[in-house]
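Run log // design_07
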């Protein structure tokens, strides 16, 4: 068969492929409520001719529609994220700047969002436009959906794709973490880009009783989680941390731990610590520290002699390093303002005493004066207003 004929056959089969994808996105064997939307939205229409598949060990493999139509079509309807735009991270390394998210994760988020007929929905991060199309299909009303995208070229491509697929949501170019368009109240806000801090503007623009679903990028080693926040009539939103989900960070929010370390002035004198730096490598503890200390970046490694070291980077160039170099026990040195390591010590000690609660037992409350993180277990400390 010629490659044109292969492409034509593949194209004619998109409905079969979309139906198979709709079956594949069932979380936990249950059909998601959005199954019908996956079956009727042509995902291939939202992808450019050249896309990239993330590689397991890092980096991206290009998949070109003209050169390898079978691979391109298979990827378009696979339960995989598809990278549609790459960018330089400033160090020469390529990172994903826009993508169509993994369909099963998209389904989990849409289920959490729980849209109902008559709802007005705002999406932050239009990307390819695919999720906006799913929202239109779910609501049966394109005018009920507004989507905001920070990159003008990405927004223009999404607009073209949405029109070609027969959908017409309201598209806006702008920063969805700051300037929300218009003054409308939404029943649902869904971010498809991760934030480190929930913008209070989202709560102000959500109707009481409404819901916000967003990926949240933690501190620690940078693990992310889905957050579903219910908004009350007092201008507060509250919800638990859910499924692990690593999304690209919203454009304004990326930290630069290396810059912080370089900016750190000379260290203070070393002090003893009861917390062994090696114990911080416990993945359950690391995950919890990433949630309760979201402004800190953590890494654990070994020095040349194989002794554990824990590094903590904080805002404003602060840095602390706990080591096992001294025969008298672990010690810590701190650079810059604030005792970062004591925050790690306190949280780790509380977590052990409380019976090692899991990440899903933690949640966040966001109000007009700030946001704080809590745990369902009694005696949960008031973690910092971040
Ligand atoms: C993972 S993609 C979104 C996937 C998309 N919903 C889809 O269905 O293809 C994230 C998008 O968010 C956009 N973005 C990043 N920061 C943003 C911000 N502050 N406001 C609005 N969009 C943003 C990126 O340019 C990117 O296109």
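design_07 sequence
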């Amino acid at each position: 068969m010629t490659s044109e004929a292969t492409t034509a056959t593949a194209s004619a089969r998109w409905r079969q492929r979309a139906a198979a994808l709709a079956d594949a996105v069932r979380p936990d064997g249950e059909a998601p409520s959005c199954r019908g939307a996956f079956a009727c939205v042509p995902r291939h229409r939202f992808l450019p001719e050249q896309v990239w598949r993330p590689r397991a060990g890092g980096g991206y493999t290009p998949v070109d529609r003209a050169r390898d139509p079978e691979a391109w079509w298979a990827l378009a309807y696979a339960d995989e994220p598809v990278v549609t735009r790459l960018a330089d991270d400033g160090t020469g390394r390529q990172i994903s700047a826009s993508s169509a998210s993994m369909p099963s994760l998209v389904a989990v988020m849409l289920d959490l969002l729980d849209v109902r007929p008559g709802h007005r929905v705002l999406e932050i991060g239009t990307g390819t436009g695919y999720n906006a199309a799913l929202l239109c299909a779910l609501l049966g009303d394109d005018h009920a959906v507004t989507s905001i995208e920070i990159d003008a070229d990405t927004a223009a491509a999404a607009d073209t794709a949405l029109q070609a697929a027969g959908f017409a949501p309201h598209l806006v170019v702008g920063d969805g973490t700051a300037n929300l368009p218009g003054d409308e109240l939404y029943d649902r806000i869904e971010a498809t880009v991760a934030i480190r801090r929930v913008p209070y503007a989202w709560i102000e623009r959500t109707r009481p009783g409404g819901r916000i679903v967003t990926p949240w990028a933690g501190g620690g080693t940078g693990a992310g989680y889905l957050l579903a926040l219910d908004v009350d009539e007092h201008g507060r939103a509250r919800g638990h941390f859910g499924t692990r989900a690593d999304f690209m960070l919203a454009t304004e929010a990326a930290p630069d731990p290396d810059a912080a370390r370089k900016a750190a002035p000379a260290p203070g004198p070393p002090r003893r610590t009861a917390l062994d730096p090696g114990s911080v490598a416990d993945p359950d503890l690391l995950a919890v520290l990433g949630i309760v200390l979201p402004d800190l970046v953590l890494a654990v490694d070994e020095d040349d002699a194989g002794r554990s070291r824990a590094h903590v980077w904080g805002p404003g160039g602060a840095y602390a390093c706990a080591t096992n170099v001294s025969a008298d026990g672990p010690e810590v040195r701190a650079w810059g303002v604030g005792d970062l390591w004591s925050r790690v010590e306190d949280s780790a000690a509380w977590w052990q005493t409380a019976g090692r609660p899991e990440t899903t037992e933690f949640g966040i409350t966001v109000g007009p004066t700030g946001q704080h993180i809590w745990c369902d277990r009694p005696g949960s400390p008031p973690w910092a207003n971040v």
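Residues 309 and 323 are 5 Å apart (CA to CA).
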